[in-house]
Design brief:
By secondary structure, the chain is of the alpha+beta class. It has 2 helices and 6 strands.
Length: about 130
């Protein structure tokens, strides 16, 4: 089930131009002039019956990451990428929180955490 959800989420995220979405990558391999959204999924059953009628809470934790470049407005690029990721996640019925977690000025980071509920019987992500 989690792999099917990951594919659904990844397919939606891959529609975002100029953002490489997928598994989280270490800071050491972040390339210049490239924006990444690395994320992880966590699931927890909230309701289950014998007739394949279950509801699963989904938690998504991801980071939008970009190397800070002096010849561009890195903050504006990161903000736009964050808005694009949020738009896709909201279209999938995720509630999202955003936090700037930049510690090192060499790499800008924004944390996005989202939650949703997957209804297995209807094969939908619901609010």
């Amino acid at each position: 089930m989690i792999n099917d959800l990951r594919i659904r989420i990844q397919t939606a995220l891959s529609t975002i131009q100029d953002v490489e979405a997928g598994i989280p990558i270490p800071d050491e391999v972040v390339e210049e002039y490239t924006t990444y959204f690395g994320y992880e999924l966590q699931m927890r059953n909230t309701f289950e019956t014998y007739e394949k009628d279950s509801r699963v809470q989904i938690a998504l934790i991801g980071r939008v990451v970009r190397v800070n470049e002096p010849d561009e407005n890195t903050v504006a690029i990161l903000d736009q990428a964050t808005d694009d990721v949020l738009e896709v996640l909201k279209s999938l019925n995720f509630y999202c929180d955003v936090q700037d977690i930049t510690i090192d000025q060499g790499i800008r980071k924004t944390l996005i955490s989202g939650t949703a509920v997957y209804d297995e019987m209807n094969d939908t992500i619901v609010i």
